[in-house]
Design goal:
The complex is a heterodimer of chains A (about 120) and B (about 110). With about 120 residues, chain A is mainly beta. Chain A is about 0% helix and about 55% strand. In chain A, about 40% of the residues are buried. Classes of the chains: A mainly beta (about 120), B mainly beta (about 110).
């Protein structure tokens, strides 16, 4: 069965960086795109970007351009999302989710809480 | 401000039907059939309920159905059950390799 397992909770100070991992299993890793979505406390879902593991090619939402990097390692079946120059409003749960092929998100990781605080 | 507009809340009694709308533009919802819906219970990851406007993944009850007219997509939950109480989000492809979500709708089962 398809599973996405994310790394654990993180706490960072403003201005720092965070790197979250997402390990896939139960499917052909290289051929499935992975999206990153975040959810601030009490708020809705926000799409951050997509990575295509076979080509290690990523596209980011405009509001994160210059501050985000998504990478993939097909040998370990893991994708990474790094967000730099963190601010307090980056405090959120970060999810990785697989593109189901119909431009939807069919399986989700358990979420990684990231707190940005002094 | 979300690119897709949903009502903040919806409600219904057990057994009734409720419809949640998701309004976009002719450049996203109105341009193709890549509209999906997600259910999220408190403290849990979202779950895919509807994809490509009308299709249900395996395991999703047929009480959940989707439709679209012009720039507005809709999710209908028939025969409401207590377990359907959750937040619901729509999503669509909004351009080349770009996606957007609606602001979410809280469904309350009275």
């Amino acid at each position: 069965q398809v599973q996405l397992v994310q790394s654990g909770a993180e706490v960072r100070k403003p201005g720092a960086s965070v790197k979250v991992s997402c390990k896939g299993s139960g499917y052909t890793f290289a051929d499935s795109y992975i999206h990153w979505v975040r959810q601030a406390p009490g708020q809705g879902l926000e799409w951050m970007g997509i990575i295509k593991p076979r080509r290690d090619e990523a596209t980011y939402a405009q509001r994160f351009q210059g501050r985000i990097t998504m990478t993939s390692d097909t040998s370990t079946r893991t994708v990474y999302m790094e967000l730099n120059r963190l601010r307090s409003d980056d405090t959120a749960i970060y999810y990785c989710t697989r593109d189901g092929g119909g431009w939807d998100f069919d399986f989700w990781g358990q979420g990684t809480p990231v707190a940005v605080t002094t | 401000q979300s690119a897709l507009t949903q009502p903040p809340s919806a409600s219904g009694s057990p057994g009734q039907s409720v419809t949640i709308s998701c309004t976009g533009t002719s450049s996203n919802v109105g341009d193709h059939n890549h509209v999906s819906w997600y259910q999220q219970h408190p403290g849990r990851a979202p779950k895919l309920m509807i994809y490509e406007v009308t299709k249900r993944p395996s395991g999703v009850p047929d009480r959940f159905s989707g439709s679209k007219s012009g720039n507005t997509a809709s999710l209908t939950v028939s025969g409401l059950q207590a377990e359907d109480e959750a937040d619901y989000y729509c999503s669509t492809l909004a351009g080349h390799d770009t996606w957007v979500f609606g602001g979410g709708s809280k469904l309350t089962v009275l």
